[in-house]
Design brief:
The complex is a heterodimer of chains A (112) and B (117).
Chain A lengths: L3 E2 L4 E5 L4 E7 L6 E7 L6 E7 L4 E4 L2 E6 L4 E6 L8 E9 L4 E4 L3 E6 L1
Parallel strand pairs in A: 2-11
Antiparallel strand pairs in A: 1-3, 3-8, 4-5, 4-9, 6-7, 7-8, 9-10, 9-11
Chain B lengths: L3 E4 L2 E4 L5 E7 L5 E8 L3 E8 L6 E2 L7 E3 L5 E6 L8 E8 L12 E2 L3 E5 L1
Parallel strand pairs in B: 2-11
Antiparallel strand pairs in B: 1-3, 3-8, 4-5, 4-9, 5-6, 7-8, 9-10, 9-11
Classes of the chains: A mainly beta (112), B mainly beta (117).
């Protein structure tokens, strides 16, 4: 049972435009949501997070939006740059069991 | 400061062979984790440790054992490898939870690509 879902396996965006990556979850008990970025042959690296009590968190070009009623979050990257080409994983954290549950990932390709 | 390192980077095993994957972190983190990544599956937690001398099962623990004899090291063992264990294995570490309002960011190693024939 996939508690965290990323329904788009891939996404291509023109350089300079906005990239929007989506994530849905089923467990309303998650306390934090995180986005990780992964380049080939490297481990995932933390990008940005949002508490379940917030609806938006911004860090430079990256903004994460959380819609708790829809159990949906999204990562906005603007403007998109070639170095943003990577696989992005959505993850959800539960303080109770201290576990991080990952989505399946979305491969973002920025077209120059 | 090397962060999280994993040894080896690649390995090919025959069915039934055993091996140990080593993870080391130099950030003095309490928590350490082993994940596997398979196509279309995301990262799944195998085992984790909340401190030296402790281990606990994650989502997919069968066929694996772990040990945390030293705070900086977390070992993942495969006693009798099976083709279903072909995967990329990631180790991660994190601080203990700082409290409400803090996020438990995990730092990942570069991964070990294991093929079981």
């Amino acid at each position: 049972d996939q508690q965290v879902k990323q329904n788009s396996p891939s996404l291509s965006v023109q350089e300079g435009r906005i990239s929007i990556l989506n994530c849905d979850y089923t467990n309303s008990m998650f306390d934090y949501f995180l986005w990780y970025k992964k380049y080939p042959a490297e481990g995932p690296t933390f990008l940005i997070s949002i508490s379940s009590i917030k609806d938006k968190n911004e860090d430079g070009r990256f903004t994460v939006f959380l819609n708790k009623s829809a159990k949906h979050l999204s990562l906005h990257i603007v403007p998109s740059q070639p170095g943003d080409s990577a696989v992005y994983f959505c993850a959800a954290y539960n303080f109770g069991n201290e576990k991080l549950t990952f989505g399946t990932g979305t491969r973002l390709t920025i077209i120059p | 400061n090397a962060g999280v390192t994993q040894t080896p980077k690649f390995r090919v095993l025959k069915t039934g062979q055993s091996m140990t994957l080593l993870c080391a972190q130099d950030m003095n983190h309490e928590y350490m984790y082993w994940y596997r990544q398979d196509p279309g599956m995301g990262l799944r937690l195998i085992h984790y440790s909340v401190g030296e001398g402790t281990t606990a099962k994650g989502e997919v623990p069968d066929g694996y054992n772990v040990s945390r004899l030293k705070k900086q090291n977390f070992l993942l063992g495969l006693e009798s490898a099976a083709p279903s264990q072909t995967s990329v294995y990631f180790c991660a570490s994190s601080n203990t939870r700082a409290g409400a309002g803090a996020v438990n960011e995990q730092f990942f190693g570069p991964g070990t690509r294991l093929t079981v024939l």
